[in-house]
Structures are given as C-alpha cells and as structure tokens.
C-alpha cells in the first residue's frame, strides 16, 4: 500500500554530518570559484594575495569534505558489506529506475504525464529507497571527476615542484600532462592551467543546474531547509515524495 496522506510522517533525511558536509562543501566551493576567477581574471574587488590566501584555505576544506566526510556518510549507512554496497548503488548510482524517472520528468516537461516522485521512503525497511533527483545522480559522477581533475591540476599551479613524503607529485603530473598538451598546441603547464579553468567553469555550470534549475521550484525548497537546518522531511507533502506504508496482516485480511 502506498500513501502520501500520513500527516505525522516526518523522517530524518539528512544526518548532522550530512548537513555539515553539504554546508562546508557549498561555502568552500563558492569561495574557490570567486577567488579562483579573481586570480585568473584580475578582478579588483580584493588583492591577489588575499584571494590566493582564501583559495588555499578553502582547498583543504573542500577536499576533506569530499574525500573523507562524504564517503564516511555514505558507507556508514546499511548493515554489513553487502548492505552498504546496496545502499550506495540504490542512492547514488544512476540505474534503470532512475532512467525511467528521468524519462517521465522529460515527458512532464512537455506536458505529458505526472512529475514522478524521486524521494521514496519505505516505512517497513525504515529508510529511503532513493532520495536524489535522477539528474543529480549523473551530476555526482561528473562532479567527482571534475573535483579530481581540478585538484590534480591545482597542485602544479600551486607549486611546480610540490612533493609529498619526498615523492615528486607535481613533476609526475606535469609529465603526464606533457603527453597530452602537444596535441593541443600547449605546454604541459599551460594545459593544466586550461584544465583548471575549464573545471571551474564546469562547477559554475553545475551550480546553475543544481540550484538555478532543478531546485528553483518552490516545492523543493523544503529540501534546502532539510539539508542546511532541520535534516527532516515531511512525507505528507506529496510533491516529489512517496511514502510506502508498512503492509500488515490486517491489510492482508481486508484484501
């Protein structure tokens, strides 16, 4: 039995660490975009040294959140190895059900059919079956790739001979870039600078898609409140959500 009419069905959508991760990620990303473009374009609203200092302060926060805290949050859900893998696949990997939802979303855009629920909570299991917009599951993979590329290219732009525990990391990155750069008529460092800027523009584009399009609908503003403040979702609000009620013996007798 499925219902969206339970007025008391308020569940935890985001844990405290989920909210911390998202807030720090958002702040760090905005700081990095603004200061990065200042460094590149030479805007005069702050000095170069101030912009570079803020940029370097924001970098470890962004990397720590994305490479430590978010993976911890993801894999702290589910019981046992297979349960954790199942949780990861259902919640973060774009699959056939997401493809069907995305197809229905596109049809709805053209005035055909209802906008499908993408936040689905199963009362009997006691957790969400899925809670991300299908397009967000695609963006997550692209963002992870972009984050890796911008971090790697940023190492060389920060210091050409940067090393870690005696390992010449920056030199290795420059050597790899040198295999690609000539085909584009660039030097290795020039290619890495171009890649860094390109990934910056990607994050600007993603921000527009994520905030300016997917969540510009007032009906999804409840998720802003959840991710930044309460952590809760009221599933009695039927917009984009579905609540799968527990199937009891009493229900079976009625049928």
Structure in words:
The chain has nine helices and six strands, in the order ββααααββααααββα. It is of the alpha+beta class. It has a single domain, classed as Fumarate Reductase Cytochrome B subunit. The strands form two sheets. The chain has a four-stranded mixed sheet. It has a two-stranded antiparallel sheet with strand order 2-5. β3 and β4 form a beta hairpin.
Task: Give me the secondary-structure topology.
Blueprint: E1 2-3, E2 10-12, H1 16-41, H2 48-75, H3 80-92, H4 96-109, E3 119-122, E4 127-130, H5 134-158, H6 169-180, H7 188-214, H8 221-230, E5 232-234, E6 241-244, H9 249-254
Parallel strand pairs: 3-6
Antiparallel strand pairs: 1-6, 2-5, 3-4
Provide the CATH topology. Answer: Fumarate Reductase Cytochrome B subunit
- The CATH H-level superfamily is Transmembrane di-heme cytochromes, Chain C
Indicate the proportion of strand residues: 5-15%
DSSP E strands, number: 6
Largest sheet: 4 strands, mixed
Q: Please list the strands of the largest sheet in the order they lie side by side.
A: 1-6-3-4
Secondary-structure-based class equals alpha+beta
Distance between the termini: 11 Å
Rg estimate, integer Å: 22 Å
Tell me the series of helices and strands, N- to C-terminal. EEHHHHEEHHHHEEH
Compute the average pLDDT. Answer: 87
Shape call: elongated
Helical fraction equals 55-70%
Quickly give the CATH architecture: Up-down Bundle
Poorly predicted sequence stretches spanning 5 or more consecutive residues: 1-5, 248-255
Q: What is the domain total for the residues?
A: 1
Q: What is the number of helices?
A: 9
CATH class: Mainly Alpha
């Amino acid at each position: 039995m499925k219902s969206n009419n339970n007025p008391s069905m308020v569940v935890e959508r985001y844990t405290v660490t989920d909210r911390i991760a998202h807030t720090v990620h958002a702040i760090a990303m905005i700081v990095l975009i603004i200061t990065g473009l200042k460094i590149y374009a030479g805007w005069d609203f702050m000095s170069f040294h101030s912009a570079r200092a803020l940029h370097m302060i924001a970098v470890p926060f962004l990397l720590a959140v994305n490479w430590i805290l978010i993976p911890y949050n993801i894999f702290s859900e589910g019981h046992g190895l297979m349960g954790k893998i199942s949780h990861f696949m259902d919640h973060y990997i774009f699959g056939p059900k997401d493809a069907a939802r995305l197809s229905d979303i596109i049809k709805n855009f053209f005035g055909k059919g209802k906008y499908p629920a993408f936040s689905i909570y199963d009362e009997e299991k006691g957790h969400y079956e899925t809670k991300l917009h299908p397009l967000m599951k695609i963006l997550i993979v692209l963002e992870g790739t972009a984050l890796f590329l911008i971090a790697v290219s940023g190492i060389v732009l920060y210091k050409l001979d940067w090393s870690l525990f005696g390992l010449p990391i920056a030199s290795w990155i420059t050597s790899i870039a040198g295999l690609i750069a000539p085909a584009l008529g660039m030097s290795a460092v020039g290619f890495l600078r171009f890649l860094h800027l390109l990934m910056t523009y990607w994050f600007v584009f993603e921000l527009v898609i994520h905030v300016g399009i997917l969540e510009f609908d007032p009906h999804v503003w409840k998720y802003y409140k959840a991710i930044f403040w309460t952590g809760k979702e009221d599933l009695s609000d039927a917009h984009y959500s579905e609540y799968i009620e527990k199937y009891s013996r009493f229900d079976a007798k009625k049928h």
